[in-house]
Amino acid sequence: MQNELNQLMMKLEKSIMNEDFIDVTYDIVEEIEEREDAFEAIQPIFKLMEKYPNINFGRPGPLVHFVEKFYKNGYEEKLVESLKRQPTQHTVWMLNRVINGSQGDRKEYFINVLDSIIAFPNLDDEIVSLASHFKSLHE
Predict the structure, then answer these.
(1) CA 131 – CA 139 distance, rounded (Å)
(2) What pLDDT does 58 receive?
(3) DSSP states of 95-126
(4) CA within 13 Å, CB half, 48
(5) What pTM, to 2 d.p., does this model score?
(6) Burial of residue 73 (number of CB atoms within 10 Å: 0-12, 13-18, 19+)
(7) Helix-helix angle 21-33:2-14, to 10 degrees
């Protein structure tokens, strides 16, 4: 089962530089959604975003729509894990979407994650700027 998921993720990565990447992504996401272990695709998707931070994954795109189906069912934790490994513009933007849907202590927790991104060592200025912008929206 896991091997099939790995194959789908490899297919996705192989198409990342192609013009039809978004179309291929829709097809692969459709295949993943049919799987019982679909949740297991979240971490590899985030690792792909970390590996290719300058790729346009869409606005928000099929991958974001897929992972957000697990909102309040483990998605946020996987997102935070990714942000602690390697924040990207796309994942910082996704964090802001989570903050917008959160309240109270949960919201504060995610805002603190934004603070850690702003302080992240050797991070691209554009990502720090984006995180700072989002932070200013929640003050």
Answers:
(1) 13
(2) 86
(3) HHHHHHT--HHHHHHHHHHHHHHHT-TT--HH
(4) 22
(5) 0.93
(6) exposed
(7) 170
Residue position matching structure tokens 């603070």: 115
CB-CB contact of 1 with 37 (8 Å): yes
Q: What is the pLDDT along the chain (139 residues), one digit of tens a residue?
A: 568 889 999 999 999 999 999 999 999 999 999 999 999 999 999 999 999 998 889 888 999 999 999 999 999 999 999 999 999 999 999 999 999 999 999 999 999 999 999 999 999 999 999 999 999 999 8
State residue 35 phi and psi, 5-degree precision.
-85, 145
Please give the single-letter amino acid code of residue 118. Answer: I
Q: What secondary structure, in 3-state letters, does 25-73 show?
A: HHHHHHHHHCCCCHHHHHHHHHHHHHHCCCCCCCCCCHHHHHHHHHCCC
